């Protein structure tokens, strides 16, 4: 067994799979059981009781994590002549080199030219995620300093990076609680069953730790 394999197996022994851990304890365990020697991520995964096929139950929103994620993100702003030039470049090359796209409303019809490029990468600006706005400068600053988008996958799960394994526990906990509060606040009105079915955290290559909320 490789050294990494041994670390992962030893990490699993630290976790009681039958236990729902308090958030603070779960985060501390996630850091302790990280399966890599390098600084990785601490992630949260939620299983929701939504039906992803029902448009009125899909989840897509943003949250401003108080301590950011530790990742530097490149922001592209589609506005005016510079925005048109960027659209032209992407259309010609088919390549993107940014993590978040923000656009002023007037640019949206023009962005349709590259929707097939941005869409599959999850980069198409959307009013619901706060990436279509007249105040592009403010939005760019917010997304650069901790505001991130989250949405459900095809199975009704939502995944989010809470920060790095070298973050202080208190900062990861604050990010976790901010995300859970934001998620609870957008419970679909049409949903008749339980909304958040389960929550788990883990570090990169580390075991999953179930969290009590």
TrEMBL record:
The keyword Repressor applies. GO terms for cellular component: large ribosomal subunit. SUPFAM superfamilies: Ribosomal protein L1. InterPro entries: Ribosom_uL1_bac-type, Ribosomal_uL1, Ribosomal_uL1-like, Ribosomal_uL1/biogenesis, Ribosomal_uL1_3-a/b-sand, Ribosomal_uL1_CS. GO terms for biological process: regulation of translation; translation. It comes from the Bacteria. The keyword Transmembrane does not apply. This is Ribosomal protein. It comes from Candidatus Doudnabacteria bacterium RIFCSPHIGHO2_01_FULL_46_24. The lineage of its organism: Bacteria, Candidatus Doudnaibacteriota.
């Amino acid at each position: 067994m490789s050294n990494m394999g041994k670390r992962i197996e030893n990490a699993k022994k630290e976790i009681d799979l039958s236990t729902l851990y308090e958030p603070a304890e779960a985060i501390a365990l996630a850091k302790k059981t990280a399966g890599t020697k390098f600084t990785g991520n601490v992630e949260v995964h939620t299983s929701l009781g939504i039906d992803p096929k029902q448009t009125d139950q899909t989840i897509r929103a943003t949250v401003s994590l108080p301590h950011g994620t530790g990742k530097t993100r490149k922001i592209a702003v589609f506005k005016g002549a510079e925005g048109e030039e960027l659209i032209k470049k992407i259309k010609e090359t088919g390549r993107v080199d940014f993590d978040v796209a923000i656009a002023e409303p007037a640019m949206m019809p023009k962005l349709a030219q590259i929707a097939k490029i941005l869409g599959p990468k999850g980069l198409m600006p959307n009013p619901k995620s706060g990436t279509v706005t007249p105040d592009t400068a403010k939005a760019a600053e917010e997304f650069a300093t901790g505001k991130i988008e989250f949405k459900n996958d095809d199975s009704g799960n939502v995944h989010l990076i809470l920060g790095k394994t070298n973050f202080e526990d208190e900062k990861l906990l604050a990010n976790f609680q901010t995300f859970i509060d934001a998620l609870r606040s957008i419970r679909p009105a049409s949903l008749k069953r339980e909304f958040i079915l389960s929550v788990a955290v883990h570090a990169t290559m580390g075991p999953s730790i179930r969290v009590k909320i």
